[in-house]
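<goal> How does this chain fold?
<sample>
Here is the protein in question

***
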Amino acid sequence: MHWICPFFARASCRSHHLSRFSILRAFSSQLQNQVTEEPVNQPLPQLGAAAEKENMILKTPKGTRDFNPKQMAIREKIFSTIISCFKRHGAVTIDTPVFELKDFLLENYGEESKLVYSLKDQGGEELSLRYDLTVPFARYLAMNKITNFKRYHIAKVYRRDNPIMTKGRYREFCQCDFDIAGQYDSMIPDAECLKVMHEILSALQFGDFQIKINDRRILKGIFMVCGVPDNKFETACSTLDKLGKMTWEEVKNELVRKKGVLPEAADCIGEYIQLHGGVCLLKQLLQDPKLSQSKLAMEGLEDMKLLFEYLTLFGIVDQISLDLSLARGLDYYSGAIFEAVLLHQQDGHLKESFHVGSVAGGGRYDGLVATFDPKQRKVPCVGVSIGVERIFSIIEENTKGEDPNSRDASAGRSCTEKLTC
């Protein structure tokens, strides 16, 4: 409308009527041009979009979920407990990008690489969403030339897995990691990681639990003396890691039919992986005539013996079990491995719960940093990850109908106050 004013300023009184006519005519001409430029007999685009929206089902993507304020109150208490423990043990936090270079991720997960989300080429780089927080941490250490570091990291990770929401198994979920990098006396960092795991799970008070431990060197020795070639070890471990979700017979069939393990070798492995216990089992294995043929297995057993001594000093050995079936299928594990499982009361005896699987896990990965370092310099590392989503599922189920801000038990009965070193 700004052009109207100068138009009237230039018009004389004698041509006032003509000017008004010219203005109206100009408006009419402009409107006419606009109308004729519109497509004829075309349906309005808004109508098609509205129809599509009517047929759309509002939902979160498969394997993800929203959290309402009450649920977030529970989660905040859980995170507060976990972070308090991490800090008390001297860890500082870092953050890394939600995606990494695709090649960095795929070469470190073995058969689990099929669960990595890959993104389209963006700006000349092939990228993938992070699968866990361990590989990004190793890349961070190598890139910044860090050789000693104690860190924690809480962030979301992504897996193209088959989600089971009722068991706390998602495609997008939060991990809470604590790791120790650097050269220390043997098994001291491993013992501290187990202490951190025990403190957090005890403080949250969501149920009784047991921590299983093993060593990839012991497993490798067992596979070797049973006649499994070294080049089949990693892929055989990924199958053994399914034990618990599958029966031993199903695992054995996969080892034989898909992984090329001889039936007699699989039977020999089955004899060992059924063993679990404590110091007495360690003594038995150290005197085993077959395992004594493997130097690697003996090294792992000696370190396990030392680890049990530290765990005894920490006062947590009663909830620790050496379990030879524990494999932790990821390729980067190189030494001690551990996993915590929830127990439930049944007929007066504690039984392992198969409802949610493990609630924490971790292990030693001494060679991972070297895969990122141009000079292949090793930085020994060990870490633990708390399965916060599964823990939340349990606590949420146990506290249905309660106000999380009015009852301490909803997040472990004020668990931040009960943690002790």
Summary: The two ends are 76 Å apart (CA to CA). The longest helix spans residues 16-37. Residues 1-40, 345-354, 407-421 have pLDDT under 50 and may be disordered.
